[in-house]
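Before the break, one more example. Copy the sequence into your notebook; we will annotate it together after we see the structure.
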Amino acid sequence: MNNKKDNSEGLISNSNAWNALKKHAQDDIQKTHLKDLLQDDARCDAMILERNGIILDFSRQRATTQTIEILLSLADASKLREKINAMFGGEHINRTEDRAVLHVALRALKDQIYQVDGSNVVPEVWRVLDKIQSFSEKIRNGEWKGVTGKKLRKVVAIGIGGSFLGPLFVHTALSTDSSCIEKAKGRELRFLANVDPIDVATSLVDLDPEETLVVVVSKTFTTAETMLNARTVRSWLVSKLGEKAVAKHMVAVSTNLKLVKEFGIDPENAFGFWDWVGGRYSVCSAVGILPLALQYGFDVAKEFLEGANSMDDHFKTAPFSENLPVLLGLLSVWNVSFLGYAAKAILPYCQALAKFAPHIQQVDMESNGKGVAIDGTPLPFEAGEMDFGEPGTNGQHSFYQLIHQGRTIPCDFIGFKESQQPIFIPGEQISNHDELMSNFFAQPDALAYGKSAEDLRNEGVPESLVPHKTFSGNRPSLSLFLPVCSPYTVGQLLALYEHRVAVQGFVWGINSFDQWGVELGKVLATKVRRVLAGKRKLDPESVGEKKDPNQMNLQNEGFNRSTARLMSWYLASDLDSKSSHRNRQGICSMFSSNGISNVDTSARDAMKAGAMLREGGEEHGPLQWLAGNKTAAATAEAPAGIKEQLRMKRQLMEAERRRVAKRGKGGMSEAGGRKIGD
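Here is what the structure looks like once it is written out:
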């Protein structure tokens, strides 16, 4: 017997406003074309707002002034004002994790008050910001140097998800601003997120360890991908500079000071944040501000925070009819739940915002990708939307075909009055920025109006091409217009979209601040990781022999037939494939040094060392990063540990060469020609 209480009566979809919107969509909007709506000048004027220096034009939405009125009634029915106040008031609105949601406090002015559990957290926030300012200035002016006395001019920030996408977006947006370029002169900021070793290689290529500072971002200091990458980079530093390099060349953004210390980082060089900051909302914490301050100086980071703060104040205080995040959020609810549009395209006509859409993709889809209300009741309506995007005009030559003549996907066009890098070539009719903005202004109208078959016939288009050149139009969009892409406006834009997402969740009645959906795959990956580690413990006598994937019996490990077979083939290819042979001779070879230097350096033992490394366990020692030092002279100049690893690398390569030669003599009719299932 199911004793679960039916809470469906509390769903927003049972409200009068929701039902009024359903009827309005069916009876009025579905019968109306945007080209007709755009003829109403009064309607257009009512749908263009300027607030905080940002112009919002939503006149190309499939909506009337009546639609907006009913949406505002829906906001009232969902108790949107109370929910916003609860968030700003530090209440534990993230019920499933019993946490406050107060990322707005991260950009609060010093005299503002934001309380969590009865305590004002703003002084604590500013203690961290002041510490970031002091530390970043020491790094930038050379007061803090590396272990060899060189200035630390290069920064690698290690983190994943919200610890990566947000800071990368802001860094990319600022990296082409002329004033930021000047402040970052001689410096470089890189990000390492993916556990894929390719990302490690590209993040470290051409870096000098003596000039490199590493920022490890992990609240708990246990995130699997981040910590494996951190250990990898730590070993790269230690192999070149010794153990003392860790304290001078690595800092942390974390709250787990115990694990930070065990890692070798001085806890004094750890920058904290709080459990009321969700990962995807953490760019304004030390997660983003520390690397940004190191690259551009604290003043730039502070200007970014001030821009976000201005949007926070607007969101908190402005009437809903004039509130930019509220209007954007309500329009998204309208498009998703009433018009049936499941996706949204974010189209910044500014190359500096190349990483904006990927960041908002996480903020939105991880927040609102939910199927139940905050009380656990299944939703009887569609919620959440799929976000994607690309800067214009690149996107026009990629996916605009679909949004013009395929699926209807509401679009956000984002443009700037001035370019970060204005160019005007004598003899050209218009500047580069004018050319860009010509497309910014034209595309929304093309989507809205389309082109009819009658227009095409009047132009003399052959009848056989008329169906192919017809544009239905009636495709909604909105436009955001800002002065220039600066630290301040980047902060505004970030907060605008963060609050838009919150509005959607508040109206739908879901919890936008947990992310249980990302957990299951990680749990299953733990089991896969354990099995892979066990299978990688190679028998020294079997090194170089072909392994039969059908003999691995991974179904006995609890995997289904499909996964077991794929994993078997993955493991079997380890010593067999030509690509594996090629990769072992690539730019980066990593081996364990502890406990290996004094053993017999045969090819088998070298292979065993590589297998130990791949297990990823805590028992292996520092990795050695070998970057092509193959000559005798280079070996003679290398430190003792590196010499040993070079010798082991040569042994491995020679063993592989002999094995390939032997196989070649014996015939290779099986190699490369087998089908899955043979």
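The chain has 27 helices and 13 strands. Confidence is low (pLDDT under 50) at residues 1-6, 538-545, 580-643, 664-678. Try to locate both features in your own notes.
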